[in-house]
């Protein structure tokens, strides 16, 4: 129970242990714990944010779905309109084409008729001449008669 | 106990004597009657020898146990600090973190200045003192007997106290460390002038009262480490004494011995509270003293 050198020894070892703790134990533990605290706080915050994000994303998805539906409907409507338009246009075109073909056919027919008439006229003249020759039994002045016949033919 | 009769008084005295290694003068008559031929360092063989060694003696058991426990604390905690990750703490690491958090909370409550030393000091004091106190729960004869049969001669001659905090040298030594830190921080924060002024002009701020103030404040100042060290010592010494008295019952036959075993268990359970509380009190008071040393405009 005497006070002796042990006192000094204890003081020195106290100082050394405190120093050791200050250098190697306390800062590492405290900084680690603060870091973890921050990490947990960040994690909680992130979870909160994720919840909000999810809600937002769901809202956005619903909206986009609605928009897409609307858009699709609009496109279908437009397509229908366009189809009707194309059908109408085709009808008009077909009518026009038909008319054109009819006119061309009519013109062709007229032309053919005219050509047949000319043909016929020529052939009638020749026939008339040949007939007259036979009737008269004599050759007539070809020039004079042919002119006559031609005149006749023209009158036909 | 070889030189003393195996009496109850002898048993108690033996248990209260530290293993002193000190210097005895030339011509000193030892306990066994031999005479020191020249002055030299030796182990004390009796309480009388130990007290005759005066200041130049070292309590090997006190220093040995306190340093061993301090090293254990340093090793365990630095290993935990090195291994510490920000992941989920497991086992010993979470225990260490719990202690550190607890100490950190206490320090933050009482100490509001920025100082890198105070919190680690509080942690060291708390754990170290607790471990030293904890040695009190080891049945009082186990370790001394073990020591007697290993490092001693097995004749019961070796003095061996396992609880460093029942040695006033240990508690006052730590209190002295706290005291030096306190003076150091006071001077650092208030300047020598400020420190002296605080001593001289409190509690009565008048030049005439300076000697009176100085007397009051110096007594107050010195009383801090003394009370800090003696409080811990007194509590643990008393607890140890009860354990020794209970242990005496073992020599009183089967009935008394069984009764003693029950008593020892009860006292040990109660003592768990005491040793924790004393470690806590030592830590808190040290922190409070540090805070005082930092409070520049402290008013009494």
TrEMBL record, chain A:
<protein>
    <recommendedName>
        <fullName>ATP synthase subunit b</fullName>
    </recommendedName>
</protein>
<keyword id="KW-0812">Transmembrane</keyword>
<keyword id="KW-1133">Transmembrane helix</keyword>
<comment type="subunit">
    <text>F-type ATPases have 2 components, F(1) - the catalytic core - and F(0) - the membrane proton channel. F(1) has five subunits: alpha(3), beta(3), gamma(1), delta(1), epsilon(1). F(0) has four main subunits: a(1), b(2) and c(10-14). The alpha and beta chains form an alternating ring which encloses part of the gamma chain. F(1) is attached to F(0) by a central stalk formed by the gamma and epsilon chains, while a peripheral stalk is formed by the delta and b chains.</text>
</comment>
<keyword id="KW-0406">Ion transport</keyword>
<comment type="function">
    <text>Component of the F(0) channel, it forms part of the peripheral stalk, linking F(1) to F(0). The b'-subunit is a diverged and duplicated form of b found in plants and photosynthetic bacteria.</text>
</comment>
<dbReference type="GO" id="GO:0045259">
    <property type="term" value="C:proton-transporting ATP synthase complex"/>
</dbReference>
<keyword id="KW-0813">Transport</keyword>
<keyword id="KW-0375">Hydrogen ion transport</keyword>
<comment type="similarity">
    <text>Belongs to the ATPase B chain family.</text>
</comment>
<comment type="function">
    <text>F(1)F(0) ATP synthase produces ATP from ADP in the presence of a proton or sodium gradient. F-type ATPases consist of two structural domains, F(1) containing the extramembraneous catalytic core and F(0) containing the membrane proton channel, linked together by a central stalk and a peripheral stalk. During catalysis, ATP synthesis in the catalytic domain of F(1) is coupled via a rotary mechanism of the central stalk subunits to proton translocation.</text>
</comment>
<dbReference type="GO" id="GO:0046933">
    <property type="term" value="F:proton-transporting ATP synthase activity, rotational mechanism"/>
</dbReference>
<dbReference type="GO" id="GO:0005886">
    <property type="term" value="C:plasma membrane"/>
</dbReference>
<keyword id="KW-0175">Coiled coil</keyword>
<dbReference type="Pfam" id="PF00430">
    <property type="entry name" value="ATP-synt_B"/>
</dbReference>
<keyword id="KW-0138">CF(0)</keyword>
<keyword id="KW-0472">Membrane</keyword>
<comment type="subunit">
    <text>F-type ATPases have 2 components, F(1) - the catalytic core - and F(0) - the membrane proton channel. F(1) has five subunits: alpha(3), beta(3), gamma(1), delta(1), epsilon(1). F(0) has three main subunits: a(1), b(2) and c(10-14). The alpha and beta chains form an alternating ring which encloses part of the gamma chain. F(1) is attached to F(0) by a central stalk formed by the gamma and epsilon chains, while a peripheral stalk is formed by the delta and b chains.</text>
</comment>
<dbReference type="InterPro" id="IPR002146">
    <property type="entry name" value="ATP_synth_b/b'su_bac/chlpt"/>
</dbReference>
<feature type="coiled-coil region">
    <location>
        <begin position="47"/>
        <end position="93"/>
    </location>
</feature>
<dbReference type="GO" id="GO:0046961">
    <property type="term" value="F:proton-transporting ATPase activity, rotational mechanism"/>
</dbReference>
<dbReference type="InterPro" id="IPR028987">
    <property type="entry name" value="ATP_synth_B-like_membr_sf"/>
</dbReference>
<keyword id="KW-0066">ATP synthesis</keyword>
<dbReference type="InterPro" id="IPR050059">
    <property type="entry name" value="ATP_synthase_B_chain"/>
</dbReference>
<keyword id="KW-1003">Cell membrane</keyword>
<feature type="transmembrane region" description="Helical">
    <location>
        <begin position="12"/>
        <end position="30"/>
    </location>
</feature>
<dbReference type="InterPro" id="IPR005864">
    <property type="entry name" value="ATP_synth_F0_bsu_bac"/>
</dbReference>
<dbReference type="GO" id="GO:0012505">
    <property type="term" value="C:endomembrane system"/>
</dbReference>
């Amino acid at each position: 129970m005497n006070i002796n050198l042990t006192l000094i020894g204890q003081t020195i070892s106290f100082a050394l242990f405190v120093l050791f703790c200050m250098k190697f134990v306390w800062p590492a533990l405290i900084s680690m714990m603060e870091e973890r605290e921050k990490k947990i706080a960040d994690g909680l915050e992130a979870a909160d944010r994720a919840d909000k994000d999810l809600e937002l994303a769901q809202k956005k998805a619903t909206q986009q779905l609605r928009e897409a539906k609307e858009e699709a409907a609009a496109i279908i409507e437009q397509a229908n309109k366009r189809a009707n338009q194309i059908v109408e246009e085709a009808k008009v075109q077909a009518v026009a084409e038909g008319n054109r073909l009819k006119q061309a056919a009519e013109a062709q027919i007229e032309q053919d008729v005219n050509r047949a008439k000319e043909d016929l006229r020529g052939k009638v003249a020749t026939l008339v001449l040949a007939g007259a020759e036979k009737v008269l039994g004599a050759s007539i002045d070809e020039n004079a008669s042919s002119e006559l016949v031609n005149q006749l033919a023209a009158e036909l | 106990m070889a030189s003393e009769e195996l009496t109850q008084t002898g048993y108690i005295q033996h248990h209260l004597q530290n293993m002193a290694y000190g210097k005895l003068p030339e011509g000193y008559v030892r306990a066994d009657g031999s005479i020191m031929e020249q002055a030299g360092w030796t182990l004390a063989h009796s309480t009388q020898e130990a007290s005759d060694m005066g200041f130049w003696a070292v309590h090997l058991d006190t220093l040995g146990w306190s340093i061993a426990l301090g090293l254990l604390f340093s090793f365990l905690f630095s290993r935990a600090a090195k291994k510490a990750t920000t992941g989920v703490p497991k086992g010993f690491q979470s225990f260490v973190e719990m202690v550190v958090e607890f100490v950190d909370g206490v320090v933050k409550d009482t100490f509001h200045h920025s100082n890198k030393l105070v919190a680690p000091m509080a942690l060291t004091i708390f754990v170290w003192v607790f471990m030293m106190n904890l040695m009190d729960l080891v049945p009082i004869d186990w370790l001394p007997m073990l020591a007697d049969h290993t490092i001693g001669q097995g004749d019961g001659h070796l003095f061996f106290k396992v609880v460093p905090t029942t040695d006033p040298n240990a508690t006052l030594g730590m209190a002295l460390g706290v005291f030096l830190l306190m003076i150091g921080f006071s001077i650092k924060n208030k300047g020598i002038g400020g420190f002296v002024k605080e001593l001289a002009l409190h509690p009565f701020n008048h030049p005439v009262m300076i000697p009176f103030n100085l007397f009051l404040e110096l007594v107050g100042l010195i009383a801090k480490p003394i009370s800090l060290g003696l409080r811990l010592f007194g509590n643990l010494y008393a607890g140890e004494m009860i354990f020794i008295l209970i242990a005496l019952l073992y020599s009183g036959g089967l009935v008394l011995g069984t009764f003693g075993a029950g008593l020892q268990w009860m006292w040990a359970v109660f003592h768990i509270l005491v040793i924790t509380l004393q470690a806590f009190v030592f830590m808190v008071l040290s922190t409070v003293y540090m805070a005082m040393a930092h409070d520049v405009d402290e008013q009494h």
